[in-house]
Amino acid sequence: MGTLLQALILGLLVGGVYALVASGMNLIFGVMQVVNLAQGGMLILSAYLTYTLWEATGLDPLLLVVITTPCLLVVGWATYYIFIERSRTTDASMALVTTFGLTLVTKGVIALIWGNEPRSVTPDYANRSFSVLGLRFPQAQVYACLVAAVVLTGLYLLLRHTWLGQSIRATASSSEGARLIGIQVRSTWAAAFALGVAAAGAGGSLLSVLYPFMPSSADHWIGLMLSIIVLGGMGSLPGSVLGAVVIALAESLTSTYVSPDWAAAVPYLAIILVLVARPQGLLGARLREDMSRA
Amino acid sequence: MITFKNLVAGYGRAGDILRGIDFTAPESAITCIVGPNGAGKSTVLKACSGLLRPRGGQVLLGDEEIGGRSPAEILRRGVVQVPQHHGLFPSLTVRENVMLGAFVNRRERDRNRRRYEEIAQVFPLIAERAGDKAASLSGGQRRTVEFARALMLRPRVVLLDEPTLGLDPKACKQIADSITTLNKEGVTVLMVEQNVRFGLTLADHAVVMEGGRVLHTGAADALLADPDMGRLFFGAAPEQQETS
Amino acid sequence: MTINRLRAGGIGLAAVVLAGLPLVSDNGYLQNMAIMVFLLAVMASGWNIISGYTGYVSLGQSAFLGAGAYTTALLSIHTGVSPLLAAPAGGVVAAAAALVLSLVGRRTRGIAFVIVSFAFLELTALLVSNWSSLTNGNHGLALPLPTWDRAYLNWPFYYYLLVLLALTVWGSWAIRRSKLGIGLMAIRDDESKADGVGVRTDRYKMLAFAASAFPIGIAGGVYAYYIAFLVPASMFDIVIAMQIVLAAHLGGVGTLWGPVLGAFLLEPLNQFTNQNLSGPDAGSWRLIIYGALLAAIVLFFPKGVLTEGAAWLARRRRTEPQATAGTRLTAVPDRLPRPTVIRSRTPQTASAPLLRVEGLNKAFGGLHAVDGCAFTVERNSITGLIGPNGSGKTTVFNLLDGSLAADGGSIYLGERRIDHLARWQRAHAGLARTFQATRVFPQLTALENLAVPSRSFSTAGLTASAISGKEAARAHEWLAFVGMDAYAEHRAGGLSYGQQKLIELAQALMLEPEVLLLDEPAAGINPTLVERLADIVRKLNEAATTVVIVEHNMPLVLSLCDHIHVLAQGHVIASGPPGEIERDPAVLDAYLGDHTPGPGNDPAPSGATA
After folding, report:
1. Rounded to whole angstroms, how far apart are CA atoms A20 and A9?
2. Domains of chain B (ranges plus CATH)?
3. B138 vs C390, C555, C610: nearest CB
4. Is residue A183 less than 8 Å (CB to CB) from chain B?
5. Distance of alpha carbon A279 from alpha carbon B146, whole angstroms
6. Torsion sign over Cα C242, C248, C252, C253
7. Contact indicator for B202, B173 with CB cutoff of 8 Å
8. To the nearest 10°, the Cα dihedral for C309, C310, C316, C320?
9. Structural contact between residues C226 and C157, judged by C-beta atoms closer than 8 angstroms
10. Do C104 and A275 touch (CB under 8 A)?
């Protein structure tokens, strides 16, 4: 019983961070139907940025989101205009090729600057835990989950209650309609893409404290993000929170009760099971193109 | 009010769709463009609303050139388009859809809110379904919401692209009423309509287009009464076909 | 003509050069590069079958490479058979894996399938690395060393893969020009529409997946022998999967030679970066160069070298074709050509209605779109289905043709109950329809569009030529019948809206249906075309086709139909001949709005105004 509760707690805490990590990819998909595989590279890039800033200044790595998020916002914005805008005018698989290419470039650049060895950010609370009723709440996990909740709430409010959010949601719903009422669709797409990358930036800072990372970690995180947004429903922000929690719980339970070796298979199994059983995900619009047209 | 001078326009690499359009849609009148599929009727509207940049010629609003300006700039001048389809935001609520009509004047919050209340009184549907997603509306209701959205800016000119497409006769009548109401408030209407009789009965002026050119302009009722034009463009009524 | 001869010459020359290369040069570097090029070309050609022809973009193609490699390796280690002989078994296992993927991806399309294929790759990789009792996991698997004389170096690998490449290209060519191929391309353009015209899409896709993976599996077996040591990470590698996608895009997706050309362009570059970069940062630079290349391809050759080149040549050779849109149609001939005689598949029972709908129900969430709908359609009638927007007319059509499953009720075509049948089965049974928003296969020509409909399914029938002999003649006849024969070779997507409507109609007619369902055929088309349509419908009806028509154009409905059903809130509120319907107070209230004729839809003969 204690083991089960412990596994659930760890799963929930990690789920909060996963939700933030996947929210950016989900936002970008929801607005422009581009599966941005570059998110993986961006995430790791932000983790390395956090590492360097933390080493140089000694500031709390979780608070460094204040710096990494705007940095990645700029990176995302530039990426949109240089690569994404042209690739998405062709077809979906081309945009995939482009964004995968960008992840490779990011990995290469990171390896040139920081090398290929695993790094980790270890503030003094990294190995401490709160203990409540005999259950362990690792401090790093708790703080990271709180920061993730704050960032996600901010993102949600931005989308719901600002004109930028309104234009993003309107453009996601119908770009032709958006153009008609005077929304600058092109800059709205750029803004949504930049926001999505910025969310990965925030996520990168958090995960730098929780897990060791190296350039090739990007691939693992891409798989995880994909599984979360597929599970939750592509394009649905609340869905990605739910999907993240489910995946994190499943991983935590699998590694407790089956074997850590198979925990890595959880996201992929989840993708396949969801798409076979319920293609529209837990929340969110249908994925089947032919159904939406009928 | 809106004058086209030797307008040339087309899409992407393809050739020109419009090959020199000249006509005027007079102030406070309803002008209807008719012609076969692919004649370039919708393209005229797009060139006017800024969705398509003309390749040559002019689009004048009064005396001011608006051809090639951005949709936002044209909207601010009071020219609003109601498109053929894909105009609404299906995943947003009816209220959000209507409010977004004032996007280019988004900073004037109070004025927009008041305007919304006025519109909700004119169109009871808006008030009734304010919180529902636009996707849940029927075809006729969507049209109404699009009309309501167009009114948010208190437009001087409304461009209508096939307002009756896919609508049942009852909804068509409601649309006709809405257009007449608009016009009585002094709004200039430029519309494209495939349902020629519907369009010309409603309109004051008619423009006949074919192959990217204007073939004829004149009073709508005269065109409707002209037997030659009738045979060429409206098709003989099926009844006549059987007796001939 | 000269272009074709030039191409044939080029391919012949390339074949001779490649066949002779090892004989004239024993340069190991060159041979290695050629082997890697062949491998990539085989994989890209295989990928092209499911992704280029069928439109299911796969990021998991290297799973088939891995499946073939591991199968071959295990077979030869445990039985002692030469890997070169065991490789076809690797192909079989890869094809079986592809069938699993096609079943898993059965309900997904587009981006969702891309993600599924990626997950499939990662899962198979995990399976192979965690199943260490069989595969030795991440410690790797060593294959026996080649037994032939060292003097022959890489010859066996080289020729094996070269022949495999030739066979793969030949297979790809054969698929392209067969019924299977045109069905696959129809699936790519609009899968549910393909289903509706009688294409058994599930079988087509399974065949395509298997055909795609089989050569890759064989190549995987040969490759395993060639590199002699297997670890999961080097076979089930997402980067290899991406290389495949890239090679195909570089050359031209969906073309026959594009993927091959792409491999010949890409692999040397790969080898170059492998060989010429050294030092501790070589790996990083390789990632950067490779990634940048991936991104750059999209910016400079979005459609592939071959496709862009062909387009460029086409532009140079002739001037832009004049836009076909915007001009009046040629006059309707006095007598439209007679359709071929329509055989009756349902036994003729004089009095029984041809189509019978009873208690049909369909709800979307809380909304009852179709609610206890019941009506009959008499044989050889033109029956109208009218009603206000949202009254459920199109939903009824969707239930009739099977694009939606009913919640309750039954549908009979003649004596046969069809509501439990799949869409393609209903098409085979004699049901055809057109859509309100016209749906043709945009990338196929008008003629090819007419070659897609299928009234039967047999695996052997799939190998038949896509459009030939009698069928081609019949397609031309129907095109002529709707007045579109002049556009037979035009891409359907480039035609005007009205022309697409006519193509869609002709396509439905290729099924020689018992019942033809027309959904708002007159919406959005100009009156002259409406007249032509009415004419066509009458002619068809004379030739014993029963027509059901949903339409708001009241003059058209009243003049055309023998019988009209009026729908409101999902059920029939009135039925009768046109004269009765236009005076029915319930209809006037629910549908027409009031008793005074409206401006454009007056039920009275409106020709008087003209």
Report:
1. 18
2. 2-86+155-234 (3.40.50.300)
3. C390
4. yes
5. 32
6. negative
7. no
8. -130
9. yes
10. yes
Angstrom distances, CA of residue C215 to CA of A82, C209, C528 = 38, 11, 54
Radius of gyration (C-alpha) of chain A in whole angstroms: 19
Task: Return the structure tokens found at C147.
Answer: 């037994």
**CB A37 within 8 Å of CB A177:** no
Cα angle at C598 between C597 and C600, to 5 degrees? Answer: 120
| B-contacting residues in A 145-174 (Cβ below 8 Å) | 163, 166-167, 169-170, 172-174
What confidence score (pLDDT) does residue C322 get?
42
The string of pLDDT tens digits covering residues B181-199 is 888 888 999 999 888 888 8
Report d(CA C50, CA A223) in Å as an integer.
Answer: 23
Looking only at the bridges linking them, the beta strands covering B16-25 and B64-65 are unpaired
Per-residue tokens: C569: 């809130």
Chain A neighbours (≥3 Cβ pairs under 8 A) are B, C
CA distance A153 to A159: 10
Measured in residues, chain C has a length of 610
Residues C97-112 as b or e (16 or more Cβ within 10 Å = b):
bbbebbebbbbbbbbb
Amino acid at C378: E
Beta bridge pairs of residue C355: C377, C413
CB nearest B171 (choices: C323, C389, C599): C389
- State whether residue A92 is helix, strand or coil: helix
In whole angstroms, how far apart are CA C203 and each of A187, C173, C184? 44, 20, 10
Read off φ and ψ for residue C147, nearest 5 degrees: -100, -10
Q: How many CB pairs under 8 A join B and C?
A: 151
Whether C570 contacts C392, CB under 8 Å: yes
Q: Please give the Cα distance from A287 to A92 (Å, whole number).
A: 14
> Is B15 within 8 Å of C497 when comparing Cβ atoms?
no
Contact A17, A203 (CB under 8 A): yes
Give me C49's structure tokens: 């079958």
Nearest C-alpha in A relative to C250? A94
Contact C354, C413 (CB under 8 A): yes
Q: Is the pLDDT of residue A147 over 90?
A: yes
Residues with Cβ within 8 Å of A160's Cβ and at least 6 positions away in sequence, in order, are none
Tell me the three-class secondary structure of chain B, residue by residue.
CEEEEEEEEECCCCCEEEEEEEEEECCCCEEEEECCCCCCHHHHHHHHHCCCCCCEEEEEECCEECCCCCHHHHHHCCEEEECCCCCCCCCCEHHHHHHHHHHHHCCCHHHHHHHHHHHHHHCHHHHHCCCCEHHHCCHHHHHHHHHHHHHCCCCCEEEEECCCCCCCHHHHHHHHHHHHHHHHCCCEEEEECCCHHHHHHHCCEEEEEECCEEEEEEEHHHHHHCHHHHHHHHCCCHHHHHHC
* Mean pLDDT of each 10-residue bin along chain C, 610 residues long: 75 84 79 91 95 90 94 90 90 94 81 86 89 82 80 82 94 92 92 90 92 95 90 86 87 88 87 72 80 78 75 64 44 48 50 86 83 90 88 89 89 89 90 90 92 82 77 86 86 84 91 90 81 87 89 88 90 89 80 51 35
Q: Which of A83, A269, A271 sits opposite C295 (nearest CB)?
A: A83
> Which residue shows structure tokens 């003729």?
C348
Q: pTM of the entire structure?
A: 0.84
Run of H or E including C324: none
Of C120, C246, C291, nearest to A105 by CB-CB distance is C291
Question: Would you state the structure tokens that stand for residue B178, as one six-digit string?
Answer: 């809405």
Angle between helices C2-24 and C28-47 (to 10 degrees): 140
Task: Report CB contact under 8 Å: C526, B242.
Answer: no
A134 at interface of B, judged by CB pairs closer than 8 A: no
The residue whose two tokens read 């990634």 is: C291
Longest alpha-carbon distance in chain C? 97
